[in-house]
Design a protein that fits this description.
The protein is of the alpha/beta class and 343 residues long. Helices cover 48% and strands 11% of the residues. The protein has a single domain (3-337), classed as TIM Barrel (Alpha-Beta Barrel), CATH 3.20.20. 52% of the residues are buried.
Length: 343
């Protein structure tokens, strides 16, 4: 059983010999680029560099699958005309301005040339093809973008969109309809290019910003509709303490959920497995992997394994300045847990 076969077997709920280890979120670690003499922002805009960077952690820290579509979670926002701030060596593209508001919302439409915009045609597409040719037989490849709810907030501004969620359902529905079309189009395009699964990152829909009641009313049906329209399996990532919405995350129809360290892994696994959903996570990125000691990283990875994670991963996007030695502890903890000899 090679790495890809093991991953897919686990993803489908089958028993495998060891828990796969890797990342299902972004991992734009500066040391990864340094190891091949390439930096950001080139890694954000050049398909060859992006592909090479994606493969680095498989050799440098022992992770077992690779990421397509770059190092930020705003591909859809970019293609929809959201103003972006430029990346630097240690920062990613970020949302700088919002193209729509209450005064021009009637102008919002899903563009017919959406997949010819942003980095889709000249960066993401070629990168996926490179990864397929170079590692696709041996390792799983995943794509990732923001989810529809987060895209909607990026289009009009998070504060304004959250106010609309409480006070103007009509405007919310209008923005989400366009965002839904973008999410479906991007994910299905990625499946057509050859990715094995697709991650929707939805930080804006988490309990830190949106109550579980509002999640059930607005986000759950949106995500159910999106997932039902996809050509392949999806994973839903939500930041912070997702304990109040774990059941609903699983009810979206996704094949997997990705959770942070604030969530209860053991409880999440129990709930997810009851609904035939797999769990990714949940070693802390902003604290442990970035600022912790190697021993702390090792211990936290062991706890995630002991609590039943299906895929041992960072709980969120990995900070650019995270030490390589810390990231190596995921693989070391996994190998020790299963009595293997670490490479």
């Amino acid at each position: 059983m090679n790495l890809k076969e093991r991953f897919l077997a686990k993803f489908n709920g089958e028993d495998v010999d060891i828990t796969p280890v890797g990342s299902t979120t972004t991992y734009a670690v500066m040391a990864f680029g340094d190891s091949i003499g390439k930096e950001r922002p080139e890694a954000d805009t050049d398909a060859r560099v992006m592909a090479d960077w994606a493969k680095v952690p498989t050799k440098l820290v022992g992770w077992e699958w690779v990421k397509a579509m770059g190092w930020d979670i705003i591909p859809l926002s970019e293609a929809m005309g959201v103003e972006l701030g430029a990346p630097t060596r240690d920062t990613q593209y970020f949302v700088k301005g919002h193209p729509y508001n209450a005064d021009n919302l009637d102008d919002l439409e899903f563009p017919s040339d959406f997949l010819q915009r942003g980095r889709f045609p000249d960066v993401y597409g070629p990168q996926i093809q490179m990864l397929k040719q170079e590692v696709g037989d041996e390792m799983v490849i995943f794509g990732e973008s923001e989810g529809a709810f987060t895209l909607a907030a990026n289009l009009v501004g998070t504060e304004l969109f959250m106010r609309w969620c409480f006070k103007d359902k009509g405007k919310v529905a209008r923005v989400l309809e366009v965002a839904k079309q973008a999410a479906i189009a991007a994910a299905n395009w990625a499946f057509d290019q050859g990715v094995d699964y697709y991650v929707f990152a939805e930080p804006t829909s988490g309990p830190a910003l949106l109550s579980p009641r509002m999640y059930k009313k607005i986000v759950l049906p949106l995500e159910q509709e999106i997932v039902a329209a996809l050509k392949g399996p999806a994973v839903l990532h939500i930041c912070a303490n997702t304990d109040p919405v774990i059941d609903m995350m699983c009810d979206t129809g996704v094949k997997g959920i990705s959770i942070e360290e604030k969530a209860d892994m053991k409880a999440a696994v129990e709930k997810a497995h009851a609904k035939d959903v797999r769990v990714f996570g949940n070693v802390a990125t902003a604290t442990t992997l970035f600022n912790g000691t190697p021993q702390e990283c090792y211990d936290e990875a062991r706890r995630a394994l002991e609590n039943g994670t299906d895929f041992l991963c960072p709980g969120c996007g990995v900070a650019p300045q995270s030490p390589v030695e810390n990231l190596k502890q995921l693989r070391k903890a996994r190998d020790d847990y299963f009595g293997l000899q670490s490479e």
